[in-house]
């Protein structure tokens, strides 16, 4: 596989990670703040989250890391509706930065 194919695959993998986590974030937000969820979903559908929504997503994904990479003896497992690794968090933060958001 050449560098362009690797970059394409990586970008595609990153996009799937972002889509998976945004779906979970929007579902959770809907339970707590329907107006914020509607605003965020509208931005997501347009392809441009508001700065407020971007910051909420960045904070949410950081707070919801469920897979710390530690064993049970080394650290806690955080139960959640989706598996979120530190690398997933970095992917979302990088994705937001690439769209001009401050994270």
Q: Brief description of this entry?
A:
By secondary structure, this protein is mostly helical. It is built from four helices and no strands.
Query: Count of helical segments?
Result: 4
Distance, first to last CA = 32 Å
Number of beta-strand segments = 0
**What is the element string, with H for helices and E for strands?**
HHHH
User: What portion of residues is helical?
Assistant: 55-70%
Strand count, sense and closure of the main sheet?
A: none
Choose one word for the global shape. Answer: globular
- The SS-based structural class is mainly alpha
How is this structure best described in words?
The protein is mainly alpha-helical and 103 residues long. 67% of the residues lie in helices and 0% in strands. It has helices at 3-32, 34-46, 51-63, 86-98. It is globular and about 40 Å long.
How would the blueprint of this fold be written?
Blueprint (H helix, E strand, L loop, with lengths): L2 H30 L1 H13 L4 H13 L22 H13 L5
Helix pairs in contact: 1-2, 1-4, 3-4
What are its keywords?
4 helices; single chain; mainly alpha; 103 residues
């Amino acid at each position: 596989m050449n560098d362009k194919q690797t970059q394409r695959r990586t970008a595609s993998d990153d996009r799937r990670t972002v889509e998976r986590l945004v779906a979970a974030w929007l579902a959770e937000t809907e339970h707590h703040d329907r107006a914020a969820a509607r605003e965020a979903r509208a931005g997501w559908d347009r392809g441009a989250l508001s700065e407020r929504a971007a910051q909420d997503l960045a904070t949410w994904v950081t707070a919801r890391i469920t897979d710390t990479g530690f064993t049970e003896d080394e650290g806690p497992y955080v139960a959640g509706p989706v598996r979120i690794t530190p690398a997933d968090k970095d992917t979302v933060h990088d994705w937001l930065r690439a769209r001009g958001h401050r994270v």
